[in-house]
């Protein structure tokens, strides 16, 4: 409770007391009863009531978030040129009055949910994109009256600026901005750009009307039922296409894997064949070298000896005709 309210309350009690004593005086006078002393009381109460009423009417207390425009009968244009700041002020009683304005931040919400918006029912903004699609936007504007321009705001709008400025400016800015974008852009990559465009337009137009915008919140974007169904069908088709693409890629990977396995087997077979050929070549070369060494080491006597050993290991005696050295002709040990 501030001092001006307290004084007005005391003045009210003083007036009640004054009229109560005045009634008592008339009652006593009608009954021919003495009213000694009551006249003094009634005069005192009258003076106190007038004094308190006058002082209470002249004192104005403004809260920390309040400014006041002084409506004055003495001012040429009907109001003082400077607004009152927060605190206790004196005005001319009964000739001047104060119109209070809050400079605290306020939120104006337009929503499809009736319990959220400033207007009951569906108060979302209907707008059309540049490709003709209808969308619905829930939004909030956070704003405050400009204390440095309060006199001008009062002169033009008084206390109607929320309904006559904030609301129409916000709705028009949203519709103007939406018309610059396609619906696909708003669904995908352009939502932040849309919000920034709306914010800039609202801020500019509110400032022109002596209102400061603190922030703009685009709470939700909804699409028409037809477009929502089309988007859902498109998403399903895209998912099916992605699935088909995945299957194709999987088959390609399987075919590539089979090709690589076959290639590996072929390469292994080639390597094995090359290894076998090289082994045979090495073996043949070794045999040739062995034969060469063997041929170099042969002598007629050695050949004859080996020949006899190979005839029959169990033969102990050999009969030969007279005049012949051997029963069989010995192999020729001469080299060509």
Task: Tell me about this structure.
The protein has 336 residues and is α+β, with helices and mostly antiparallel strands. The chain has 4 domains: 71 residues; 118 residues, Band 7 domain (Tetrahydropterin Synthase, Chain A, 2-Layer Sandwich), CATH 3.30.479.30; 34 residues; 39 residues, no CATH class. Helix 1 packs antiparallel against helix 2 and helix 4 runs antiparallel to helix 6.
Entry summary:
With 336 residues, this protein is of the alpha+beta class. It is built from eight helices and eight strands, in the order ααβββββββααααβαα. It has four domains: 3-65 and 92-99; 106-223, Band 7 domain (Tetrahydropterin Synthase, Chain A), CATH 3.30.479.30; 226-259; 298-336, no CATH class.
Write the CATH homologous superfamily of the largest domain: Band 7 domain
- Taking the alpha carbons of the first and last residues, their distance comes to 144 Å
The largest sheet is: 4 strands, antiparallel
Low-confidence stretches: none
Which class of secondary structure composition applies to the elements? alpha+beta
Rg, Å, rounded:
58 Å
Q: Element order, helices and strands?
A: HHEEEEEEEHHHHEHH
CATH C-level of the largest domain: Alpha Beta
Number of helices: 8
Mean pLDDT: 82
Quaternary state of this entry equals: single chain
Number of domains: 4
